[in-house]
Amino acid sequence: MKKMLELIDVKKVYNQGKTNEVVALDDISLTINEGEMVALMGPSGSGKSTLLNVIGGLTPVSSGKIFVEESDVTKLSEEELAALRRDRIGYIFQHFNLLEYLTAEQNVMLPLLIQGYSLNNASTKATTLLRELGLGGRVQHFPRELSGGQEQRVAISRSLITTPALILGDEPTGDLDLSSSEDVMKLFRRVNKENKQTLLLVTHSEFIGSLCDRVIRIDDGKIVENGELVK
Ligand SMILES: Nc1ncnc2c1ncn2[C@@H]1O[C@H](COP(=O)(O)OP(=O)(O)OP(=O)(O)O)[C@@H](O)[C@H]1O
Ligand SMILES: [Mg+2]
Q: What is the reported pTM?
């Protein structure tokens, strides 16, 4: 089976050597194969966002290696990292990070435009995806004109629009009601099956966890459970 993601002894220490030093990731090793849909669970402050951020190359590690497919992200230059994020990774941030001066449609189009799509094609794809997530009537709205759950669905659309091989979701359904959460999980499962896309989804919900192939649990920067692939 092809590996999508491999972490080897990854350590992340914030404020190393200072009195406010925090060991956020404490020798994490794990492998996720292509086509797996994995939940990452653990208490607040256990290191979940940090783990996603080091995988996406947004935060440097203190030590260890992180392979996304064949690339060790800890060794890539800023340019190589940007290309990896643009072409291979879809990121759903815990706080959405939508561009406030762009409409919902434009936010979702942006990754395609960066990849060189025409305005027309990008617009068609973006509106189709937004409609699928129940936002057909909010395409021209700006983030400040949307509810938290609507903003979250725009952020989800933006992460999926380029069909990335790896989707990193930081509590992607955290602001959604049960019915919208189920719709999003169905969409995740569909892209997972149709395109073999790999998903790593942070969640506090055991229900969302139960919809994934396995659950990895971390506590205090350490893996305490690394569930087996059940399907
Ligand atoms: N930039 C930073 N500087 C210093 N410490 C940080 C920084 N970011 C996170 N931390 C610390 O690292 C630890 C892990 O934080 P992280 O955000 O990864 O937790 P989390 O599991 O995502 O929590 P939550 O469920 O609340 O989102 C926490 O103790 C936090 O205080
Ligand atoms: Mg977090």
A: 0.95
Does the Cβ of 22 fall within 6 Å of ligand 1? yes
CA of 10 to the centre of ligand 1 (A): 15
- 42-73 tens-digit pLDDT: 999 999 999 999 999 999 999 999 999 999 99
Topology of the domain comprising 3-97+165-226: Rossmann fold (3.40.50)
Q: Which ligand has the nearest atom to the CA of 24?
A: 1
Question: For ligand 1, atom 30, which residue shows the shortest CA distance?
Answer: 45
- Coil/strand/helix, residue 116: coil
Q: Hey, what amino acid is at 46?
A: S
Strand arrangement, sheet containing 89-92:
89-92, 166-170, 198-202, 37-41, 214-219, 222-226
Q: Is 15 in the pocket of ligand 1 (CB under 6 A)?
A: yes
3 state SS of 33: strand
Element containing residue 87 per DSSP (H, E): helix 78-88
